[in-house]
Structure to design on (566 residues):
């Protein structure tokens, strides 16, 4: 369940940079759903450089659950390619710190954990295509019900890299049969946010035994005539990181994402400062 | 200029795997344009692991010139994520070997150069969107003229990472004004192959002084009423690698690409063996 505290009721009207400033100062430490509309939000993985090459290889080989949208310099706590003045130590509302695969702490600031060998990897999240579905008139059940999205472990093997591997976690959204083609086409436009569905229909076919008992998040109603549609999920890399039992690894807390300054529908996820970028905006 | 020798006149009808086998045995060491229609072809960069994390960061930050489509394990000469039985030491028709930034050799096999610390990075190439343009009835001038695409250094700064940085190289294709929107939409569908144009129109705006004198490749005619359209180019990472003066770095020779088993229009560039992949094909 998402921990709700100091959630910014007015956040939807604030810019991404203004919200990050409130997060940095502690004025907002709640979830980020619906904040900074139109801006890319990200899953977060911070890990020692010794594992970063393998982790990037792992993400490259599993782009649907692990779409890399930003990578920091080793030891740098700034992420200039995702926005102005992003300090990854303080600009995410809530973090989880893992040691040897065990959760040791949930905190709102990781400055005390920062080290010169840490590398930040930002990964796209499903908020992006959910927003696009809703704009297209396709309702998203867990949002309608005010719940977390249901997430399930599957038997879909990931392509391994170094110590990273395992099976994919998926989210499920029930859709009417005549909405599926449109939902597929819309989500496919966002490869940086899990892209098109991984599977449609029979949960047993991908190793899910009971849709009413998700492994993470909350169950949602699947109404008569609706078909469960499964997308790759950002919990996948979190589980993979935990299973690899790294000496240290830091992620965001579920629902408490990094809000970037990159537009959700930008062709690439690399932030271009409008004041410093005249010559590459010729189109 | 492309070096033409032992070019496979019948190659267009052979499967990607069959062509690689001919390349491996030395039966084909010419360019790969037009071979294995519908299959993704790749630029190649092989470099020591010590530089691989920075190079992947560089590519992530510059996805239009440097779209990563495959990364090998350190020391492994196989590339299973791009196809069946790809041995990167022998399955590219022609390689260039650089030491400290200087070209030392052009060869058809790099087995003697292989080392346990080398990492292979495969990058998308413009063949993919050119094929799509032609299928859509938009002619590509340098192909019509039987020439290499004209390529130009620009003043567009790349986002640096570690020792890698510099300015972007672009290709240019002249189009009629009423073809530009379609060409943009078509190429934007292939983010793994440089995506939408980087710039359109005035060459001086991106630092090109004379369109008739490309820095690489051949000049092409720009007819009255046509507009030059510029795409990010795979020579960019090659120049960046040369400038970084790595102890060793191996690339393909221009036009002599890695032919993969991945479909050009696949949603991701990760090869899935049809015999081993039943459960992820539920869609």
């Amino acid at each position: 369940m998402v921990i709700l505290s100091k959630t910014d009721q007015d956040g939807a009207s604030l810019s991404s940079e203004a919200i990050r400033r409130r997060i940095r100062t502690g004025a907002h430490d709640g979830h980020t759903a619906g904040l900074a509309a139109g801006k890319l939000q990200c899953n977060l993985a911070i890990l020692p450089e010794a594992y970063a090459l393998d982790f990037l290889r792992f993400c490259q080989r599993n782009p649907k659950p692990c779409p890399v949208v930003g990578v920091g310099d080793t030891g740098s706590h700034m992420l200039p390619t995702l926005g102005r003045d992003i300090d990854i130590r303080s600009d995410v509302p809530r973090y989880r710190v893992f040691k040897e695969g065990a959760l040791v702490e949930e905190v709102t600031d990781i400055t005390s954990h920062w080290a010169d060998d840490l590398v930040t990897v930002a990964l796209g999240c499903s908020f992006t295509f959910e927003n696009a579905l809703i704009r297209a008139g396709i309702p998203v059940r867990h949002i309608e019900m005010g719940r977390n999205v249901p997430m399930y472990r599957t038997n879909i093997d990931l392509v391994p890299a170094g110590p990273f591997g395992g099976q994919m976690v998926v989210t499920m959204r029930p859709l009417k049969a005549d909405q599926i083609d449109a939902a597929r086409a819309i989500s496919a436009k966002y490869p940086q946010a899990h892209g098109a569905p991984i599977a449609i229909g029979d949960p047993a076919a991908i190793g899910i035994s009971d849709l009413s008992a998700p492994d993470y998040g909350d169950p949602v109603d699947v109404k008569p005539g609706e078909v469960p549609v499964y997308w790759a999920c950002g919990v996948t890399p979190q589980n993979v990181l935990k299973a690899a039992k790294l000496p240290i690894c830091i992620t965001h807390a579920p629902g408490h994402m990094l809000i970037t300054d990159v537009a959700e529908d930008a062709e690439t996820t690399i932030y271009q400062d409008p004041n410093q970028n005249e010559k590459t905006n010729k189109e």
Q: What stands out?
A: Residues 2 and 255 of chain B are 6 Å apart (CA to CA). The longest helix of chain B spans residues 49-61. Chain B touches chain A through 44 residues (CB under 8 Å). The longest strand of chain B covers residues 39-48.
